[in-house]
Design a protein that fits this description.
Helix content: 40-55%
Number of domains: 3
Structural class: alpha/beta
Largest sheet: 7 strands, parallel
Radius of gyration: 37 Å
Strand order of the largest sheet: 3-2-1-4-5-7-11
Number of strands: 28
CATH topology of the largest domain: Rossmann fold
Length: 1028
């Protein structure tokens, strides 16, 4: 319906008149807000026609029985005494917010057709609600009730009750930094349609595995789903007259009748009552930290007014942050102390003494000492007396409540509430009193309000009538006496033990020297008998007679690793390589990958039988158990070194493939390695960048990557379970949530694979080896060799060809790299060191050089003539930009348009167009490297650099992990790399260089002429403009 058809006013004549004759729909009617809302509507808007409440049967009780129980609340006593038939206007309708389409029957939907006002306040305030339940109840439930509302013929307002805290980490940087919460609709948290789809298609256990990714910035599932539900409302604002109403922490009633009435122990009063019962001794939070609270009746008045104002005054969706006053845990606790003797509780187990702390470890220690140990003792005593133990259960609830409130009890928020505080500006004087949202008496006499609340809690929640007060006072007096006695005994015991300790130290002083000498001698003996080597005698000797297993042997690193081992460790027994059949070629046929590879020519020439020691085993890293047969597993029993370098470096791999290939495969290989009888080292090849957003706040801010294990990204067992059991489409939706902080599936699953290794470090001698960006070979044979043109190499060649004109990033930003042969040497040494020297799992960040965009530009300009390409289409001239729009504009102008023109010419000449295809590949490479080309990292590599120092003089040359000389002679290396790429990838022999140089000169001349013409035209236009 078009709700904008109603004429708007700037004044509300009468609120009761607005509600006169209306049908109202309420969700969450049996909740705290719902009770007070219904009471207020029936009392102050008595001429309304009907209130419909969607209520579900609960614990075997029908909705009609639930209505009878609802009406028996002490809150309605005065209302019923004034008008016994008042509840005839209230009708409970069977439904369930968490069910599809609210679980409403067609008959009930028909009943609701004339509803004018909707108050959607249903919510589960369990902050630790399972994600599936929270999404179905809060997000899908909101969508379904909005859909239902679009069928109402007389709809005037839809009030969605959210919470002020659901967007505390969803604003701009300034708002988040200052903890500001404004009265506006915030940006979309996640695509709510996808979120609902996930909850509908995945079982609860699977969703629980990934909850942390959804709630990382929303603290818990309640706040997350409330924020997403606001996004649902936003998408319906053209169809439904919306109000988003965000109360802060809702506390007891402030206005008679029943001042202080509350029907739950959620929030700060739960802490206060816990203290009065003697159950709560330690509280996590700041005593003086401001808590934003609002009495429930003020909240309800605001809701009623906001619906009225939305129809009569507002033209668009209105947002209200319903905040009334600030209190603190300290203030509530002091109010509790003030009434401790006035309203003592019969069930008190000890005296009130609550302390606050923001130290996590102090909180944990005191919780164990003063909560769980006493609870366990008392429950044990109750069991012994054949009574029901209950204190441990109570403490688990207290702990859960403290965890839920932790952020709010130690953080102060700045909540903007201008819209809310000005709701009464549109009211007449009588309505301002009836629907008061500025109860000054409560703000003035806050302690009296707290006192009334505690009195109501005692009577109505704890079922402790006033007649028990005298007996409770006597009991409290006895407990205080017992508390003083226990404290006296405790401090006397401490004093006694301190005295005894000091005395024993003085007596034992004469024996200290003898004991120290004895201890030093013992330590020397232990050190001499258990010390490991500090240097490696010979790397080749270490590998002598070894059987080695390699994964990823046909990849870039794998090819160099196999060649290096066969060349420099000739006395090893066997190298097994797990290889899968590919493109119709069997595993044995794929051995040609090695024989036809240029880096093996020199090896085969010197030793024609060298590759006899290489045996390919059929397997597939993405299959369960690596797809290895039982007979092949038997052959691998004597393997002593494992190099696990298999990986798909496609950054946009589907999550399912990446998890199975990287995470499950790592687990399966580790399990296989545990069956090897002679295991010396398991080298897991990761990447230096997989933990760039997983360290401490300081490390993330400084973009520092340390040589250490990082915390678990996720539980890898759950992620494997997800990949094995969930379909690809659903996993692709999940992918963006899981990889939110890891950029892509490659880095995310590499980080998870490290977590797998961490869990196996007690069972296997593991090495975590993290190369940065792996580039060409730096040494002979085949200096400059590379197996594929990925990453920076492809962009560099595209620059020489004139295909690349614009790069996303900054020219001063540095990319860290390591030569492939240096990386391989480091892997070989690290395995050796792990067995001979290391006692714990070492982590190496393998990086030896860094180059900036400026370095690349200078090198390309210096070598453009030496590496002149026959296929160059223009001069080499790359510009850098970090502006997204400028990058897109230049990409279209300098990349896409020339590619279209040249491809069109090629088509007209009957040739195959290919430049657009190349530009798409270049663009994908740029997107993959975008984050790295625009950010510099501090990669700490101290441990890696130390690898060279444990080698003898000969091995320092043979297994050089740094290649210092090549780093110094960078120009020569780039030239040789460029020439190799020219010959083998572009099929452009060295004989064509002279002709290519002449062609380059002509292109440069054309480039200068075009620039001159463009500049001259520009100058002429400016001259012409100012002259005339």
């Amino acid at each position: 319906m078009d709700f904008k058809m109603f004429s708007k006013s700037t004044k509300i004549s009468s609120v009761p008149d607005f509600y006169k004759g209306t049908d109202i729909l309420i969700t969450g009617a049996t909740g705290f807000l719902g009770y007070v809302l219904i009471e207020k509507l029936l009392r102050s808007c008595s001429d309304l026609n009907k209130i419909y409440a969607i209520v579900r049967p609960k614990r075997g009780i029908s909705i009609q029985e639930r209505k009878k129980a609802f009406m028996k609340s002490e809150l309605f006593e005065e209302l019923i005494s004034e008008n016994p038939t008042v509840f005839d206007k209230l009708e409970f309708i069977e439904g369930d917010i968490s069910l599809l389409e609210l679980g409403l029957s067609l008959i009930d939907r028909k009943k609701l057709e004339n509803v004018s006002i909707v108050f959607h306040s249903a919510a589960s305030v369990r902050f630790d609600e399972p994600l599936k339940d929270a999404i179905l109840g809060h997000v899908r439930g909101t969508r379904d009730i909005l859909e239902l509302s679009t069928t109402f013929k007389k709809l005037k307002a839809f009030v969605y009750v959210s919470t002020a805290f659901c967007n505390m980490d969803n604003g701009n940087l300034e708002e988040m930094k200052e903890y500001q919460i404004k009265e506006k609709v915030y940006p979309e948290v996640d695509d709510w349609k996808n979120v609902i789809k996930l909850a509908e298609n995945l079982d609860g256990d699977v969703l629980d595995c990934v909850t942390s990714h959804f709630t990382k910035f929303s603290v818990n599932t309640y706040l997350y789903t409330k924020a997403v539900a606001e996004n649902v409302c936003k998408s319906y604002e053209q169809k439904v007259p919306l109000v988003i109403f965000r109360p802060t922490i809702v506390i007891a009633k402030a206005i008679p009748p029943f001042e202080g009435w509350i029907n739950n122990l959620n929030g700060p009063y739960g802490v206060s009552i816990g203290g009065l019962l003697g159950v709560l001794r330690i509280c996590y939070g700041k005593e003086d930290s401001a808590l934003d609270v609002i009495p429930v009746d003020v909240t309800v008045n605001g809701m009623i007014l906001s619906a009225c104002k939305r129809h009569i005054v507002d033209e668009s969706t209105a947002v209200y942050n319903a905040n009334f006053l600030k209190t603190s845990i300290g203030q509530i606790d002091r109010s509790g102390k003030a009434v401790e003797f006035e309203f003592p509780l019969s069930k008190t187990i000890w005296t009130k003494n609550v302390t606050c702390t923001t130290c996590k470890y102090n909180f944990i220690i005191q919780s164990i000492l003063f909560h769980f140990i006493p609870a366990a003792l008392i429950d044990g005593l109750l069991k012994f007396m054949d009574k029901k133990p209950q204190l441990l259960k109570v403490h688990r609830k207290v702990q859960a409540a403290q965890k839920a409130l932790a952020l709010f009890m130690k953080t102060s928020f700045e909540i903007f509430n201008y819209n809310f505080t000005h709701l009464d500006c549109y009211l007449n004087e009588e309505d301002r009193k009836t629907f008061d949202i500025k109860i000054t008496e409560v703000a003035k006499y806050h302690d009296r309000f707290n006192k009334n609340t505690i009195k109501c809690i005692r009577k109505y929640i704890l079922k402790d009538p006033d007649e028990t007060i005298p007996a409770a006072r006597k009991r409290l007096g006895r407990l205080k006496l017992a508390d003083n006695v226990v404290r006296a005994i405790f401090w006397s015991t401490i004093a006694y033990y301190l005295y005894s300790f000091v005395l024993s130290v003085l007596i034992a002083k004469r024996f200290i020297i003898c004991f120290s000498l004895l201890r030093i001698g013992t330590l020397k003996f232990i050190t001499m008998s258990s010390s490991k080597l500090t240097h490696i005698p010979s790397v080749a000797d270490f590998y002598k007679g070894c059987e080695i297993l390699i994964t990823g042997a046909t990849g870039f690193i794998g090819l160099v690793l196999v060649e290096k081992l066969l060349r420099s460790c000739p006395e090893l027994t066997k190298i097994y390589a797990i290889v899968r059949p590919k493109k119709g070629k069997s595993v044995q046929e794929r051995k040609s990958v090695f024989t036809e590879c240029e880096i093996y020519f020199d090896l085969i020439k010197n030793n024609p039988n060298a590759l006899d020691k290489l045996e390919l085993i059929e397997g597939d890293m993405s299959l369960p158990g690596l797809g290895i047969s039982k007979s092949d597993r038997k052959r691998l029993e004597n393997v002593s070194i494992v190099f696990h370098s298999a990986a798909s470096i496609r950054f946009d791999d589907p999550l399912k493939d990446a998890v199975l290939g990287h995470v499950r495969a790592t687990r399966d290989l580790l399990e296989l390695a545990m069956t090897f009888k002679k295991m010396k080292a398991f080298v897991h090849v990761s990447t230096a960048y997989c933990n760039m957003d997983n360290g401490s706040l300081y490390e993330i801010k400084e973009r520092r990557i340390e040589e250490r294990f990082y915390p678990n990204v996720d539980d890898w067992r759950n992620i494997i379970k997800l990949a094995e059991n969930v379909d690809r489409e659903t996993l692709d939706i999940l992918s963006k949530y899981l990889t939110k902080f890891s950029l892509n599936t490659y880095l995310y699953t590499k980080a998870l694979a490290e977590n797998v290794c961490h869990d196996y470090e007690k069972k296997l001698p593991i090495v975590i080896y993290r190369p940065s960006i792996v580039i060409q070979k730096a040494t002979e044979p085949c200096m400059g060799w590379i197996s594929t043109l990925n990453g920076p190499s492809s962009l560099s060649i595209a620059g020489f060809l004139g295909l690349l004109r614009c790069v996303y990033g900054t020219w001063e930003n540095k990319l860290d790299g390591v030569f492939v042969d240096a990386a391989v040497n480091g892997m070989i040494i690290s395995a050796c060191k792990r067995h001979l020297i290391d006692d714990e799992t070492p982590v190496y960040n393998s990086t030896v050089m860094s180059s900036s965009g400026a370095d690349v530009i200078i090198l390309q300009q210096d070598l453009e003539r030496d590496l002149a390409m026959s296929m160059a289409i223009w001069t080499c001239n790359i510009s850098y930009t970090k502006c997204e729009y400028n990058f897109k504009f230049q990409s279209v102008l300098s990349h896409l348009l020339p590619a279209i023109i040249i491809d069109t010419v090629l088509k007209l000449r009957g040739q195959e167009p290919r430049l657009q295809k190349i530009q798409r590949k270049i663009h994908r490479a740029q997107i993959a490297l975008k984050y790295f080309s625009s950010n510099s990292f501090q990669i700490r590599n101290f441990k890696y650099l130390q690898l060279e120092k444990i080698l003898n003089a000969s091995d320092k040359i043979t297994f050089d992990p740094i290649n210092k000389e090549v780093v110094r002679r960078n120009v020569e290396f780039v030239k040789k790399s460029g020439l190799y790429t020219r010959r083998h990838f572009l099929k452009d022999p060295d004989e064509t260089i002279p002709a290519a140089r002449k062609r380059l000169n002509r292109i440069k001349f054309a480039d200068k002429m075009i620039r001159l013409i463009v500049l001259g035209s520009f100058v002429y236009k400016i001259y012409d403009y100012f002259l005339f």
